[in-house]
Structure formats: structure tokens, C-alpha cells
């Protein structure tokens, strides 16, 4: 039982079992076009979930990921849109817009980290508040930059290529996602900062006594989470061909659920990039399969919520088993 609970490949096996179980009813789930859709759906969600994983590893949580995506999306789009954009028609507009995406993510992440680490506020309350504030701010900002009030379109082709373009048949988004995943994996396994993350998550008091700059580590995780949410927003905006204040509105549960299902402990101190990938893949395949079965959106949400609750309970059981050493 312990071997099953702590297996790195448990979620991958469940994904394969789910596909095998549902295939007789919806054989199109294994069609190449459908598998491509799942692959493209996984990429930005995986990027955002990696950011959340870093925050969870220090026993905190970030609920503002989707509001960061929305704010970055509309701010970046307002710079490069050909419809009265700040840099409309400029060859530098896409580059400036990408810089704006990243700056928004870094700024909101730093705000979350500073409020949590410097003022001792619960990260749940801090990020819930920033989620509400920046979600509203994104809607207000969009209304001031477009007559429709719903989205900012007419984005330059050079930026849209980030959503669907590629080189040698490999999407740019896949290349960026792989680079981020490898970089974070190396950071966790080979760097001093990675060891600090695990130490802070397991026991912040002991880490502080050992000389770990706990507050700076916590702030850094929120900054990285904000940055990766902004990168995910670039991919989503490129695909939607518009900046929208409701970008990512429905994926917050998926981002948190993928990390938890992938073995990232809600109690801090554990997490792997490969596990998060398996979690994202599992949720994406479940979502795709349920939609192919023709279930309503509410039924899909209910089932996914149940799956995530089961994963959270499993995490609690694993935490107890690990604490008992048996």
C-alpha cells in the first residue's frame, strides 16, 4: 500500500487506465487530432501549475494565478493592438507587449510574496484579495481600451505565432514549456535555492536556524509563480488572438488540482516537475473524455472536483504515513 501511495507513476497509470476504460465508448479520444488538442491544452496549464508547485512547496498557496493571466493579457494586448494600441504599427510592439506580460506577473507575484512574508499575512487571504482586485481591474482596463468592453483584438501576427506557430513542426509553446520544466527541475535538484525550498516547506523554523533566508525564499516563490502565470497568459492570448479579462477564469481549479494530483503536498516540502506534468495530463484527459461523452459542463466540474478532492485526501493520508515513518 505504501509503495502504491508514494509511486511517482501512480497518476500516469491512472491516466492510462482511464483512457482504456473510456475508449470503448468514445474511441475518438485516441484520434491524432484529439491527442493534439489535449497536448496543446496541457502546455499553458503545465506552466501555470509549475509556478503553483513552487508556492505549495513552501507550504503557501497562490489563488491569484488566473487574475495575473487576465491582467497581463489585457495590458499586453493594449500595447500591441493595431486598434489604437500604445505601440500600434511598431515593429517593437510584440516584444514590448511580451515584456509587459512578464512585468505584470513579476509585480503581482512580488506583491503577494511581500504581503505574505514581510507582514505575516496568510497567503490564502493575500492571494484571494489580489485575485479579486486584479480580476476587477482587468475588466475596468479592458473597458477603457475597447468599445466592446470584452476583449482587445487585432494583435500582430508576430505575437500570434507564439500561440500556434512553431519550428520544424514543434510549437513554440512546447519548446518554451520544455525549457521551463527542465530549468525548474534542475533548480530543484541541483541548486542551493532548490534545497532551500524543500527546507522551508518541511520546517521553516529549523530552516531559519540553519541560515536559510526564509522570507526571501517565500517571496521568490511567489515572484516565480507570477512570472510563470504571465508566460501561460502569453500562450493563451496568442491562441485566442485577443487579450481578455476573463482569461483563465475557469482553470484555477485545474491549476491547483493538477499540482495536488501530481503529488505536490499541501503541507509543503515535496514536489516534482514530472509529477505536476502527470497531474496536468490526467486532468486534461479526464476533461476531454467527459466532454466527448457529452456530459454537461456542470457534470464535468462536479466530477473533476471529486477527483481533486480525492487527490487532496490521498495527500493527507500520505502525509500521515510519512510522519509515522511507516
Automatic annotation (TrEMBL):
Keywords assigned: Cell membrane, Membrane, Transmembrane, Transmembrane helix
Membrane topology recorded in Swiss-Prot or TrEMBL: Multi-pass membrane protein
Residue stretches spanning the membrane: 9-26, 38-56, 63-80, 92-111, 118-141, 161-184, 196-212, 218-239, 290-314
InterPro entries recorded: ABC_transp_permease
Coiled-coil stretches noted in the UniProt entry, renumbered to this chain: none
Name of a matching Pfam family: BPD_transp_2
Subcellular location: Cell membrane
Record's protein name: Ribose/xylose/arabinose/galactoside ABC-type transport system permease subunit
Organism: Labrys wisconsinensis
